[in-house]
Amino acid sequence: MAALSWAxxxxxxxxxxxxxxRGAAGFLRHGSPRTYAAVSxxxxxxxxxxxDIDGVLVRGHNVIPAALDAFHRLVTxxxxxxxxxxxxxxxxxxLQHRKAQELSALLGCKVEPDQxxxxxxxxxxxxxxxxxxxxxxxxxxxxxxxxxxxxxxxxTMEELRTAFPVLDMVDLERRPTTTPPxxxxxxxxxxxxxxxEPVRWETSLQLIVDVLLSNGNPGTGLVTAPYxxxxxxASNMDLLWMAEAKMPRFGHGTxxxxxxxxxxxxxxxxxxxxxxxGKPSLLTYQYAEQLIRxxxxxxxxxxxxxxxxxxxxxxxxxxxxxxxFHQYLQRAECAAQAEQQGAGGPxxxxxxATQSCTSILVCTGVYxxxxxxxxxxxxxxxxxxxxxxxxxxxxxxxxxxxxxxxxAFREEGWTW
Length: 416
Ligand SMILES: [Mg+2]
Hints:
- The protein is of the alpha/beta class.
- The protein has helices at 3-23, 65-74, 96-107, 142-148, 157-163, 201-213, 252-267, 282-298, 315-340, 401-412, and strands at residues 47-51, 58-59, 62-63, 85-88, 116-117, 133-137, 153-156, 191-194, 232-235, 240-241, 249-250, 275-277, 307-312, 356-362, 396-398.
- The protein folds into two domains: 47-119 and 280-339 and 352-412, Rossmann fold, CATH 3.40.50; 123-277, HAD superfamily/HAD-like (Rossmann fold), CATH 3.40.50.
């Protein structure tokens, strides 16, 4: 699938959210699951799982016992998964193969790197930017990650800061003691990758804004900032996350909020993203669906995957995203039917047989059943995602991942 059509699909998410607010009722299935007169014989899978990691399979460095039970049943005696599975996390400060190794060790079954979707993994499809000189923001193995995503010409914040030492002036201890000569041999930056929350926010905020305002030449100091500005690709919009502290911690969404506010204040214009990815973005679910399909093909399962079950612990990212994707699939299905009848309309923008994405909320992570409803809480989602409270309601709420998989297998008429 072409990168541009994915990007277009992502931009469509905004409209979908708006539409959802007007008429989402009815698409979420609640209540009793389908019943079967008899459990059918297990054959080729036509369903698969999108599994969140933190709060679903692990808490900190410890595996959740229910996950071990679930994978014990999900894996054949030969060590193969019975159905396609991808792991979808908003984490980004690690490498895909390292996360796969961690999961393999924790779950006791082989997890391949291409079963893991980190928050920035969909950047692989934005090949039109892969040869551009991109400034990368984040922490951990940012250069390795950017290269693994396909970006061949990456500049780190530290390299930029070293090239132009007079830009980073907040920390008195880090200010240059002499004025270095102006560099003219530093090639222009052509775009910005925001992979995750950096450390020293003041440095990253200052240098990213400098790059955008100067059209990639922060040594020159333009009088008029170009608009539209250089392309910005960002992943992980989570405002907050839970660690050991009793109160939530700042996530990358908080960093983006700061960057957007500064850019808006300085220019009077909105910071625009070429793409925003990570849950709950539609792009991430489309990417996950593509990996599920490829996995099924590799296993030689000829039957198309028609139904996905997305299991997560966070209503704002896991459930909202799964429901948004389900809604998209439903609309695409309607459009396809209309097309067949000659009415035209929007089509699914990639080859897909998937018809539904069922959201299942577990209680082993962020979500607490006794919490006040989302309607009483402020919206913590990103600016570019309209808020539709209906999308926060899971199709099913269960205790843990084992219950979630049991439910899905029962719905599919498979033995568990
Ligand atoms: Mg989670």
